[in-house]
Amino acid sequence: MASEEPKAKKPKLSEEEKPESPTKKTPAKLSPNSLFGMGNPLLDICAVVDKDFLDKYTLKPNDQILAEDKHKPLFEELVKKSKVEYHAGGATQNSIKIAQWMIQEPHRVGTFFGCIGKDKFGEILKQKAEAAHIDAHYYEQDAEPTGTCAACITGDNRSLIANLAAANCYKKEKHLDLEENWELVEKAKVYYIAGFFLTVSVESILKVAKHASENNKLFCLNLSAPFICQFFKDNLMQVIPYVDVLFGNETEAAAFAKEQDFETEDTKEIAQKAQALPKVNTKRKRVIVLTQGKDETIMALSDTVKTFPVLKIDPKDIVDTNGAGDAFVGGFLSELVQEKPLEQCVKAAHYAANVIIRRAGCTFPEKPDFK
Fold this sequence. Notes:
Blueprint: E1 35-38, E2 42-48, H1 51-56, E3 63-66, H2 72-81, E4 85-89, H3 91-103, E5 110-117, H4 120-131, E6 135-141, E7 148-154, E8 157-163, H5 172-176, H6 179-187, E9 190-194, H7 202-214, E10 218-222, H8 226-231, H9 233-239, E11 245-249, H10 250-259, H11 267-275, E12 287-292, E13 295-301, E14 304-308, H12 324-336, H13 342-356
Parallel strand pairs: 1-5, 1-9, 2-7, 3-8, 5-6, 9-10, 10-11, 11-12
Antiparallel strand pairs: 2-4, 7-8, 12-13, 13-14
Helix pairs in contact: 3-12, 7-9, 10-11, 12-13
């Protein structure tokens, strides 16, 4: 959750199957602000703590929870008493950050919108976003503090506590609708929003999704968590008709299928049924991409289902799987925004996830080693 918030191609495709991409072999030339993300920005605060610290705040060594009132002092105490590392986090921001890392040059290919507080943590978050070379434009308000996610590390365990705070306060009319911000939206050709943002501002998502659809650009959404499919079903189903690429994992897919009365628990069938749901922009066929942990990744497009084996990894090399989903999407987007074939997008997604699960938090080496 430090990474994902709480629960947070070369067999050629036929013309029908393609989400419209050029036939030329050279990738599309990238320019700043080509990839747009909007979501819940969190400042990840990572520190090694002892058992007494966990006990004081009734935390389990390996858990993901939303902060309650009793946890609020924890964040300041962590900063005062421990050696902490800060990272720009939250599901969508992580994926944009990973995509930018995979792309490397030019900088600021990825734009990110979200809400933070006018405080110390907000300033750190801005610095970290800049260090990751993403073009973050935050809506800053002072009613709520910047959202944070504490990663309390004990040995091999990580106890994750998220306080969404300001992330819940995003306002379309105060930020997205402003001319200088909307111009950044218009510059993009690929859009990505994690399902968590459906709990914050569905009207903002719909404005971006409709723009993408009307201009034949790619709009991507993530199911993000079973609770989104269950308790925010109405918001989700308002957005689904605009979705060109839908991401999820097998647990989220099962929850989605149950809520949609698909009457199947087979992940491939779920992908096919989700792919066939009504769609506004008929120029593009919807693509469904479902991950299954160490098992093969499933992709449904038109009337076909393809599977892709994930990269093998020795279990002892796995440090932290929390960022895997965000990293997968980031890798995928890094190729999608360059108009690469879908199979190449999956290959990049698997590579990024494989790198991130070998490290603590959603962090990465200076440069990718991806061909």
